Amino acid sequence: MPKYEPFTRKPVEYLPVVLGGQTIGYLWASETDTAASFVRRLETARLAFEAPLVWSERLTEAGEQDLPAREAIRRWIGAPEDPRAGAVPAGVTPQRADSPAVVQRLANPDLAPSTGPLIQDGEFPDGTPVDRSRGWGPLHVEMPASYPAQTAGPVVYRAVVAESGLILGYLWASGDAASYVARPDAGLDGTNRSVVLYPALREAFAQGVPAVQAIRSLAPDADEAHAPSLDDLIALASRYEQSLRLTFPLPDPALPPRPPLAPAERDTVLAYLEQASVAFPAGAPGPDLEDAARPAVVPSGYRTDGTWVWPEATAYYLRAHAVSPDPDLVAHIRANAGHVPEVSKDSLSAALRTLKSNGLLTSPPIT
Q1: pLDDT tens-digit readout, 145-158
Q2: Angle at Cα 54 formed by Cα 52 and Cα 57, nearest 5°?
Q3: Contact assessment for residue 280 and residue 361, using Cβ atoms and an 8 Å cutoff
Q4: How confident is the model at residue 137 (pLDDT cuts 50, 70, 90)?
Q5: What is the DSSP letter of 244?
Q6: Which of 182, 291, 295, 343 could disulfide-link to 169, CB 3.0 to 4.6 Å?
């Protein structure tokens, strides 16, 4: 039997995991006995940073022993507490949930559950099996018609606001065109709102609702504003005003290459990256994505200067492979003359919120 799948849309049963008298997360297994994983409570990350790794190893071992997934988690009921992974208390009874999303919400109520890959349990979200031999015809996916998502003229727009007051993005219309622009500083919440808004726009289009009336109906309580162009609205949405700016160590292949740093500047940038305040502590090191032959030595924590948040791996890849950081971050370091500013408690909290809102502190999936 292969290792258990880390995702399923089917019902699951779950068990609490306790360390030092504190619930650090939950083990779950699907009723199909083919999927299992561990969900850590983020607020216990410092106490149980290695728990996901330990449970991953345990579930992998159980899968190699051909144990059904539910048996694989039940076997740990009443076992001695591990100092890294905790224990499932003796006498507990497995609880049932409609899907792992319920368990994820139980562990971390403030985070949106992970939807996982398109294909789970051998099926597409609508239940269509991947195996076409099961009597289904060739798969054909066609997106329903909607308003054009581009325009050359001025736009009218309305902010889409979460209950917390966070501006998630903007619904806009221009002539017969309409769409939604997410704010990057709203993290995954801004992006995820499109899952609701795009179908709503398609439905309004199918009913013949004019574009501007469609966005008014979807954001009825928001003030209406105007922008000279869609590019101007995108520029507005791109401002970082609600969270810190977040960057990653390796460049996006779809973007132009990052300009190399001059040797005289390299040490200044490295010192800035490595001396900034810790936003989230490092756990187990990760693999080197530029050289698979190297041991897993890439640091996994995050640092901040109160304006930006970056993985500690950023300094590693600059030092080991001369991979320059994000050009905007480099420009920011230059503007600070290489001096790392003092970071307040509020800024550290903002950095942590930024990481959480972008899904970076979610327990890693067990594969």
Answers
A1: 899 999 999 999 99
A2: 105
A3: yes
A4: low
A5: -
A6: 182
Cα–chain center distance at 32: 27
Section 284-300 average pLDDT: 87
Question: Which pTM does this prediction carry?
Answer: 0.55
Q: Is 181 helix (H, G, I), strand (E, B) or coil?
A: strand
Smallest CA-to-CA distance from 328 within 256, 229, 231, 254 is with 256
**126: confidence class by pLDDT, cuts 50, 70, 90:** low
Is residue 1 situated within a structural domain?
A: no
By the 8 A CB rule, do 247 and 305 touch? no
What's the whole-number mean pLDDT along residues 25-39? 94
Q: Are 249 and 342 part of one and the same domain? A: yes
- Which pLDDT value is given to residue 133? 53
Q: Are residues 250 and 344 in the same domain?
A: yes
Q: Are 17 and 96 found together in one domain?
A: yes
Classify 187 in phi/psi space as left (phi over 0), alpha (psi -120 to 50) or beta: left
Q: For residue 71, how far is the Cα from the chain centroid?
A: 30
Task: Give the number of domains in the chain.
Answer: 3
pLDDT at 358: 81
In this prediction, residues 350-358 reach a mean pLDDT of: 88
Contact criterion met (CB below 8 Å) for 113 and 2: no
Neighbours of 319 (CB within 10 A): 14
Rg (CA), the chain: 24
Question: Could you tell me the two tokens for 84?
Answer: 């890294």
Asked if residues 140 and 25 have their Cβ atoms less than 8 Å apart, the reply is no
Given the DSSP bridges, would you call strands 12-19 and 95-97 parallel, antiparallel or unpaired? antiparallel
pLDDT above 90 for 278? yes
